[in-house]
């Protein structure tokens, strides 16, 4: 029960970060918002790691893979923050939900995992769901929708690397290194794009880091009490606060095609999660 509560709390906090980012995107560059997400996450995460988890912070056995993971997540964050500055939170997140399908599609090559016909079918169905949301040929494609889809693709590879690292590196170290990679890289280029924030904007920028930090810490705590395969389906609950924030603060109402695509993608993702769970139990 603890695992479920922690996981749900994590997925409830992260959409608040997205809402802050969308609000700030009207006045601040996407790179500056991304910088805030990483800089303040490190500022709030580092003291927690040092005071409470210092003994667990052992240097990585695969530093190059850690850096690659950080680069991929940074790229995914930039794509997602750009997409929500243009399209609705619900549509962007729906397209980003293709991440589990990407994991399934590429795990045979990158992880050496066997994927059967039924899971391949679920991947194809999930991709059809993303096409339902975008509807190429019926509505004009825009970079924001493609960026949201790119977020899901990048996040899928991020999850694959996370699986590789889970057998060698401590998850807390992985969280910290990912934040450090993003913070260092964006800090190097942000002076060229900097727009002076107001006091309110500074507080929202700090809020992005706080909610990202709290959300990810809850997700890490949840994994202490249950396997990732059991908790994976709970990630789809993120759409609930996402839709509510979009509706109440940005007057965004997802259209029926977005809901249909969302249902298709979620069902295919749930099927894949269920198959992985059953295969894990039988092995």
Tell me about this structure:
- The chain is mainly α.
- The chain has one domain.
- The chain has twelve helices and no strands.
- Helix 3 crosses helix 8, helix 5 crosses helix 6 (117-134) and helix 5 packs across helix 7.
- The two termini are 25 Å apart.
Please outline the helices and strands.
Blueprint: H1 2-24, H2 30-52, H3 63-86, H4 89-96, H5 99-110, H6 117-134, H7 143-166, H8 171-189, H9 199-222, H10 228-231, H11 239-250, H12 256-282
The oligomeric state of the chains shown is single chain
Major sheet details:
none
Our estimate of the beta-strand percent is: under 5%
Which consecutive residue ranges, at least 5 long each, have pLDDT under 50? none
Helical residue percent band: over 70%
Shape assignment: globular
Helical segment tally?
12
